[in-house]
Amino acid sequence: MPIPGQSEFDAIVEFKLFRINRDLEMISDNFDKKIFIF
Amino acid sequence: MTFRNYLSHKFNLKTNFNLKKYELYIKQLKEIGATEIEHAGRRLSNIQKQRKNDVIKILHDNGLKAILYTGPFGKDKNEKYAQRDKNNKPLSLMCPSSNYIKDILLPELFDVMENYDGIFFDMPWVDKRGCYCNNCGGKPDVQNALEKITNSLDINLSINSGAPKIHNVHPEAHITKLNNFDEYVTEWNPYRWNQPVSIIKNSITFAKELTNKKIYHATTVTDRNGNILSNDKLSSLFKHIYGAGATPRLGIGFNEKGLKLIGKALFENNYI
């Protein structure tokens, strides 16, 4: 079951990973807001 | 019908925000069918914990459930727990067979889970490069780690179950023999990949065949450029999620106009 756009898939996984790990830092930032531009 | 919504990208517990504006936004989310709100924040200062309790009170006062979002194998500065590649390089996730769960994860959850109604565990898997650290000897045991978690926590637990029957990048995230979580969350946005929306039924149906527990389907509602999907696409997305027997788990941080678009698609299909 290949994924179309494997590199983009990896980028999404990396973002989720960043989000989880960022949560474990005591600092905060606006990273999500840069990604989720509505 | 209802849906769960991840909200930490708009209101982050680690950042000061106006609680009145938060409550106003929660009321708007409730109007379009949200019944559960997720916030990240497992490692909080005392001020941040107070903000967490204030937020949960607002959610409860408005009849919504509060869910803690976290990763079971999230990062820690102490590399003795880290997954390692074949060259012994530490990776970003912690090894499920290390003492990370006992030493770090569970104590931190006990510290912040008060007042929450549930916990959602995202990324319960091993790095795609595998793990070859001294803790697991090249055989990281995700199932055993998750069992330690469910045996230790007396709260409603849900977990990311990947996208079975769509891709197999993280097969250990799929529901296998472990059936002691309370809820399972499949995850895929077919529009991002130009796939027919019906493909998400593959994952949801697979999950429902393996468990009688509640199934959520997580998806963003935007295209590759971050723009909200059209009304037709939103309607089709919700039809397929609800139609397959799952509850949507979304990540909405829209302004009022965006919320109305979501609400319109749900209302027109009689989901609210």
Describe this structure in words.
The complex is a heterodimer of chains A (38) and B (272). Chain A is mainly alpha-helical and 38 residues long. Helix content of chain A is 61%, strand content 0%. The longest helix of chain A is centred in the middle third of the chain and has 18 residues, at 6-23. The radius of gyration of chain A is 12 Å and the shape is rod-shaped. Residues 27-38 of chain A have low confidence and may be disordered. Chain B has a single domain (3-268), classed as TIM Barrel, CATH 3.20.20. In chain B, the strands form two sheets. Chain B has an eight-stranded parallel barrel, surrounded by four helices. In chain B, strands 4-5 form a two-stranded antiparallel ribbon. The radius of gyration of chain B is 19 Å and the shape is globular. The mean pLDDT of chain B is 93. Chain B has helices at residues 19-31, 46-61, 100-112, 142-152, 200-210, 231-243, 256-268, and strands at residues 3-6, 34-40, 65-70, 82-84, 90-94, 118-121, 156-160, 183-187, 214-218, 247-250. Chain B starts with a strand and ends with a helix. Chain B is an alpha/beta fold.
Specify the structural class of chain A: mainly alpha
Helicity range of the residues of chain B? Answer: 25-40%
The averaged pLDDT of chain A comes out at 67
**First CA to last CA of chain A: what distance?**
32 Å
Radius of gyration of chain A: 12 Å
By CATH, the superfamily of chain B comes out as Glycosidases
Spell the H/E element sequence of chain B.
EHEHEEEHEHEEHEHEH
Question: Total number of helical segments of chain B?
Answer: 7
Query: How many runs of DSSP E, i.e. beta strands of chain B?
Result: 10
The secondary-structure class of chain B comes to alpha/beta
What string, H for helix and E for strand, traces the elements of chain A in order?
HH
Mean pLDDT of chain B: 93
Number of helices of chain A: 2
Strand content of chain B: 15-25%
The rough form of chain A would be described as rod-shaped
